[in-house]
Fold this protein.
Amino acid sequence: MKTRDMFKRKKVLSFEIFPPKRTGSLDSIFETIAELKDINPDFIGVTYGAAGSDNKHHTFSIAANVKKTYGIESVAHLPCINLTKEDVLEMLRDLKDEGIENILALRGDINPDVEPKNDFKYASDLISFIKKHGDFNIIGACYPEGHMESPSIAEDIKNLKIKVDAGTDHLISQLFFDNDLFYSFLERAELAGINVPIQPGIMPVINKRQIEKMITLCGASLPKKFLAIMDKYEHNPEALRDAGIAYAIDQIVDLLAQGVDGIHIYTMNNSYIAYKIYEAISSLLVA
Ligand code: FAD
């Protein structure tokens, strides 16, 4: 099922997982997916080479398994900066053969040590290309606080509108810890004429090092309330995990009460966290 159709029925709940490193076994990720199945997610997204990890060769096979073996709709991430048009055409054929209908089309992060191929400069170039070459549902990334490289949020929204007009069916946001920033972003997006579903991305934080790494990569601001939790519980893993889950639930309850289109959870392959959140919010997921 295409994700754009899911939003017509209910608030969409989805999870993001990442493949193991090249040498890692796939067993643990399949275990995670089997556990996530109990929560009945609307879809599971599988990252591709995110955060510099070398895992791209597993993305499509995991996404195919999510769908075929576990009966859960899947989304394959596809960053294009280091791909040629021929590479993408081949991948689109593979995705079609595997029955994958949903692609999160991304530019990807620029690696200073890798000369980018020049076929796709922005995600919008990839989106127009995919639209021309298949019947895929295309998802794009958006940034409530503006993308790190963007000179301003206004400039970023202008570029987001280009991306949506190129054929984006639905947007998933970068993680954020201050809901007010997300609401301002929604207002700006609406004013710019962006009218596809926008799913806020929430990352439950369960260890301080993980969040420090994420912040370097995406630049999300950390509210005082959040920093207090980090400082107080950084040496007590169980307390930090519980506080991180509680903080995420608090964010999600507020977001759903404000009428957002759905929730996307960056699970970090931790099904326990996904389950705890689901338990707390499942009754709120009515349309
Ligand atoms: P774009 O939409 O192309 O934007 C990149 C920058 O270019 C922005 O500053 C934008 O304002 C600017 N821009 C866009 N269009 C134009 C234009 N026409 N003219 C001038 N400027 C323009 N990365 C991975 O490698 N693998 C993953 O699996 C992955 N999954 C992700 C999932 C989500 C939900 C999110 C939010 C991000 C994910 N990323 C992933 C990270 C993403 O690749 C990076 O944030 C990357 O730096 C930008 O990708 P993009 O698709 O948003 O780029």
Remarks:
- The chain is about 45% helix and 15% strand.
- Residues 3-285 form a domain with the TIM Barrel fold (CATH 3.20.20.220).
